[in-house]
Amino acid sequence: MYNKKGDDMKEKQLNALLENINYEISLLANMSAFIKQEFKDVSWAGFYLNQDEQLILGPFQGLVACTTIPFDKGVCGACAKNLTTLRVANVHEFSGHIACDSASNSEIVLPIVIDDSLYGVLDLDSTNFDRFQEDDQLILEKLVNILIKHLKRIKNN
């Protein structure tokens, strides 16, 4: 069930966690740990960053992951190419899915766009089918906006 109060708390917690961090890698590392800790039934949470028109592995929490993803492969690549959030109920039915973890069954990937440029994507996996709902997407989009605010802050310092 949707818990708006819980979502507000997540936003406040993440903002407080990130507000005194002045290093990009530390922002990403703590946010991936925060998401893994705060969202139930998430087996992998982390970042792929845009570099040379491909995604490279960034900080994450979970099992060993793919290190590079072209924009024309997998859920992460499709998200990066189209700059749109993708929720996939069954990754085995997603054309071009990359099985970095064969136990993963559902996924949500959110683009991180800063000043009209793709910075990277936030990727969450679950071993449960149909784990990620619209409510998850809404709060995760708010959390990505908090991350963007802090990435801009440290870039401007």
Properties at a glance:
157 residues; alpha+beta; Beta-Lactamase; six-stranded antiparallel beta sheet; 39% helix; globular
Task: Please describe the topology of this protein.
Layout: H1 4-18, H2 24-38, E1 44-51, E2 54-61, E3 68-70, H3 74-82, E4 86-88, E5 106-114, E6 117-126, H4 134-155
Antiparallel strand pairs: 1-2, 1-6, 2-3, 4-5, 5-6
Helix pairs in contact: 1-2, 1-4, 2-4
Give the structure's gist in a few sentences:
InterPro entries: GAF, GAF-like_dom_sf, Phosphatase_reg/MetRdx. Belongs to the free Met sulfoxide reductase family. It is built from four helices and six strands; from the N terminus they run H-H-E-E-E-H-E-E-E-H.
